[in-house]
Amino acid sequence: MNRPPPADPVRRRFLRGLLTGTLALGTLGGATVAQAYRFGVTRHTRPLPGLKNPVRVVFLTDLHYGLYIAAGSVREWVKATNALHPDLILLGGDQLDSRMDAPPGPLLRELQRLQAPLGVYGVWGNHDYGSFGLYGGRQYGPARPDWPAKREELRQAFAAHGVTILRNQGVAVRGDLHVGGIDDLWHGQPSVKAALQGAGSRATLLVSHNPDILPELPPGIGLTLSGHTHGGQVRFPLIGAPVVPSEYGQRYAMGWVQGAHAAPAYVSRGLGVSGIPMRNLCQPEITLLDLTPAGDGLPSTSSP
């Protein structure tokens, strides 16, 4: 299920769309900047096939620590997450967004404060790969040939601070729940099969940074969680987001969507920003999922 990186015009169109939206919002001054740093909690109750007992999951994605996001923002996100008393915390990729010549101590110290009895797990995203040095950029500097060693160094640093990165791996976090995480769709080598190996009859949660994997998923996945799109980051009344960084346009921009075999998936608007330090009508979110056994009779609900 390897996917080559998208052609440069895809990213250029996304950034141009953000820039166009920013210019259109110029009269609002600092309002769009302020919106980028005011986050909320979206709350959802959903049944999950195979689950024997309820589980509370918090999903955090697209932190983008480095270019526009500092430890103070992460501290507030961690504080809000712990206040929700989750059983399990999942990170959806793009934790990093600047060159990492050394592990990011301030970020890791904040993430170490996350509290969840079933653990904290995450995946890598495309901006993480830029931070490793796979490709160059203004916040990354030149590409570095030793980027795989840097990826491993950072994986170990995250693990030492309580965050297990799953790259085509899965883990039974409870007798009735399997969590799988896949590599980044653009720059990694994602394998859903490897991530779900050993799941058996357990309920399954799959974490994929990029939602464009959804049409390729095999049957039987209980719920997939993704980020990457930021909901378009800059949205307008009636028309929504001018550009979404997805091969499928608006289809997987944000919220509840369906993958192959009508499998449910949730695409978070994320917490950080990319390209420009602004958002409009697209609030950063912490996603709270109260997952219940499929036969308990509770309806699926969502609320901001």
TrEMBL record:
Annotated Calcineurin-like phosphoesterase domain residues: 56-231
Top-rank taxon, per record: Bacteria
Record-given protein name: Metallophosphoesterase
Keyword Hydrolase: yes
Lineage: Bacteria, Thermotogati, Deinococcota, Deinococci, Deinococcales
GO BP annotation list: lipid A biosynthetic process
One Gene Ontology cellular component: membrane
Keyword Metal-binding attributed: yes
